[in-house]
Write a structure and sequence with these properties.
4% of the residues lie in helices and 53% in strands. It is mainly beta and 134 residues long. This is Phage tail tube protein.
Amino acid sequence: MAFVHGRNTYVSLDGNDLSTYTNNTEWSREADTHDTTTYGKNSKVYEGGLKDGTATISGTYDNTAVTGPKAVIEPLLGTKVVFVMRPEGTGTGRPERTVDVVVSSYEETLPVADMVTWSAELQLSDDVTDTAQI
């Protein structure tokens, strides 16, 4: 197994490549658990349930009028679009995750002594497709 550096990560939202504006991506998956413990057990028993997840993308603000993060993401608030993440970058055989997401938030942070940053929260909707790029 080889270690992978994050610098080659590719992310797109609704077909828009946001990689050049993004410097951090967080991917979180979880599943419901259901307690099925019955009388006579000494320990709890669980069954798995529905899966859920979120993704957060963020970076340094760029005011590019048509392709910058604000121009792309803000109009998508509350809509369901396709999110693509390639944690090892683009290339044949490298992993790619594709999933529908609802864009649930877009935020800008404006500190007095640093660069303006942005972040977007994406709620995963339905199954994630994990494939190798062709």
